[in-house]
Amino acid sequence: MDTRDIDRFLADSPKTLVGMPDWVESDRPDELSATWNIADSAGIISAQLRFRCPAFDKLHPSVSLIFRGTPVWRVDLARPTLCKWNLPDAADLGLPAQVCGSHEHAWPDNRQYVIDNGGGQLPYRRPLPPQVRRLPQATLVLADQINLEVGHDQRGFDVPPYADLFERQQQ
């Protein structure tokens, strides 16, 4: 994996979302997922947003940017009391030792780690502003940082209603 390709993709503008995703049962138990393709400025689809939502905790979904099969960025909505540690050298990146609540695993914070260790892991966390509490907000925060245009008709994408979750569990 060439991190320069990721850098070029992130800098490319404008990128757009293609269509609207649907929630489906994940390959993980008790989880729903959705995938939303991203077209770069040339119209080529080489990335996607992947959404995950625990079936019984729809307040705490996550959205990941996947570029050519590699996780590049992730936003996790989490309870304010859920705390996770950063790696010991996080202070070198201006990151706190521990992050509580909603956070992101941003590419600029994790780029060197990926170069040194290969793709797949994004261990460094950065807290999100406390007002980011819902999936549509988290999606817009991520979109803003990666030069992704989100159309007005795409801004309402959210976790499925509880009734849909219950119906899926009965099937």
Can you describe this structure?
It is built from 4 helices and 11 strands. Strands 1, 2, 3, 4, 5, 6, 9, 10 and 11 form a 9-stranded mixed sheet that branches. Strands 7-8 form a two-stranded antiparallel ribbon. With 171 residues, the protein is of the alpha+beta class. It has one domain (3-170). The mean pLDDT is 93. The N and C termini lie far apart (40 Å). The chain has helices at 3-11, 107-117, 135-145, 162-170, and strands spanning 15-17, 24-25, 31-39, 45-54, 62-67, 70-76, 83-85, 98-100, 103-105, 126-127, 148-149. The longest helix has 11 residues, at 107-117. A hairpin with a 5-residue loop joins strand 3 (31-39) and strand 4.
SS content category: alpha+beta
The average pLDDT is: 93
End-to-end distance: 40 Å
Oligomer classification: single chain
Largest sheet: 9 strands, mixed
Rg, nearest Å: 16 Å
Task: Count all strands and give the number.
Answer: 11
**Poorly predicted runs of 5 or more residues:** none
Structural domain tally:
1
Helical coverage, percent range: 10-25%
Strand content: 25-35%
Helix and strand pattern: HEEEEEEEEEHEHEH
Helical element count?
4
Overall 3D geometry? globular
